[in-house]
Every structure is written in C-alpha cells, then in structure tokens.
Amino acid sequence: MATLAGGTVLAARRSGPRPLPRTADGLRIVKLSLPVNAPCVAPLILAEQIGLYRDRGLKVEFTNWSDTPTLLEAVATGKVDLGAGMIMQFMRPLEQGFDLKLVAGTHGGCMRMVGSRRAGVSDDVASLRGRTIGIADATGFAYNTFALLLKENGVDPLRDVAWRVYPAPLLEAALMKGEIQAYADSDPLMYLAQMRSGGDLVEILSNLSAPWQGRVCCVVAASNTLLRRDRPAVLALVDAMVQAAEICAADPMRVARAFARYGAVKAPVGEIAAVLRMQTHHMHPLGHDLAAEVAFYAAQLKTIGVMSRDLDPRAFARDIVDDVTRREAAHV
User: In what side-by-side order are the strands of the sheet with 111-116?
Assistant: First the structure.
C-alpha cells in the first residue's frame, strides 16, 4: 500500500497541475471573488460585460465574499482562483502564511473618515483630539489605515483619540446619537452617508490624504494553485483588468452603468460614478511597483504594532508579490 501511495504521488507530480476547466467554446474558467457591494470593483465587472476576458480566452465567474478571513482561506485553498480586496485587510494574514500571492493593485482612494460638524469636528485633523472614532473592526482596514494617517498628521492614534467598534451599518446611527463624533469605513457607505447628512458630515481624511497621495489601496490575490496550473491565465486576467481600469479612469459613467446592471448596490448611476471619480483607477501597480507598495505598508504597520517588530518589509514584499508579467514561474 505504501508503494502504491508513493507511486500515485510521484505520478501526479510528473503529470503536473490539472488544467483549468473550459467552457463548451474553449474558454478557460476562472473564479474571482469580489466584494460585490463595493463600486471600486466595477472595472473588474466591466471587463466581463464588454468581453475583455473573453478576448483573452477567459470566462470569469464572480462570487461574493463576506469577510477577509473567508476570502483569503478560499483563495489559499483553491476554492476560488483569485480574490480582490483591501491591502490593509491582507497584510497581517499574509504575514501569518496564507498560501497565495498578490498579483496586481487595482486603484486607490476608497476609504474615508468623516466627522460631524455639529459635534465640533472639521476637516482639520487636529479637531479630532479628544473625540471618539467609530470603526467596524478593531484590527481591520479602517483602523490600520487611519491610525497611521492620524499619526502622520500629528494626532496620536493611541492617546489623542478613542476608538469604538460598531457593526458597519450602525456607524451612522452611533454618530447621530452622539456616541461617536467621527467614523471611518469604505465607499459607498461613506459617500451615501455624506449625501444623507445635509452637510453635517465633513471628510477629514481619505486613504489618498497626505502623505499617502498616489498609494494603491486594493489588490488582486491569486492562489498558488492557479499560478502553477495556468500562469498565463493570471496574466490575461490582469491585462484585462488594467484595460478596464483605464476605461474607468477616462469614463466613470460608463463603468457605473455596468456596475449598476450587476445589481450589487442600489444607488443611482450618477452617485456610483461620483464615487468612481474620487478613486484613482489609473493606478494599478504590478511586479516591482506593487512590491514597493506592500513594503511601504508593512513598514508603516510595524510602527503601530500590527506587523511583527522583526519583519523585513522588503523581504516580506518579495515573498508575497508575484510579478506575473515575467515569463518564468517565479515565487510560486
């Protein structure tokens, strides 16, 4: 039995990874998990609707993810082939060893912190001193992002402000009750809340605020299984994504219409387009440029104790980023 089992394993290794499944007309089927209520993924959806994936021999099937640990587990174990999400949600789990690689950045600018003018908060970061800020997760992307940006702008995130956790849908109500004076989350939640506030909610910071202008905030991760099975398929998807992102940067209304047809967010097309205009869809770093983004964030997160004190940010970035534009199967 031992000989048979050993022989089976060796035979599987000699035959290589199984090819991707195909549609009846020969397209390779790739599963991509998205936060389908987030307008920032609209270019990835547009690419399917206008045939950019098909042009590259792919049929992309979308699934929704409910939380980051579930997404990362699904990608790492090959339940889905790729997943899109916020880099600040990925960093700590990737340090802990999830078996996947980051292959592309998609854009910047989908996180914001707002405050209540009635509570004495203004667009001056200093107005947050002594205030309580609401977030949906004590260790999530909003805390990681805005604790660092507060620090960069002269407000100590541990001493000068307090943080209080609420489910994301209740953040606006907590502010209206006076339990918090500001809160942070992602769009479209933040944009729509500002539109409802009658001018009360003022933007204090976004993840494009100084000194983070030009930083990417969302990324696509690929399973190592997929990279071994069909590396060109990953490059094909990334190439389609980049083309769709450029369309979004030039014509956000077109992309908003495509996203609205998908039905994930019940908001007017004009408001979806407004959100997309606030984002930087002309920014989609790959390879070395993406590794530089990862190294920057890793170094920043060390300063607030999110990443290990002895972490080498550049080595970490090299380990978790795969440059799919290279022909050889590097880092897989």
Answer: 162-165, 132-135, 182-186, 111-116, 201-206
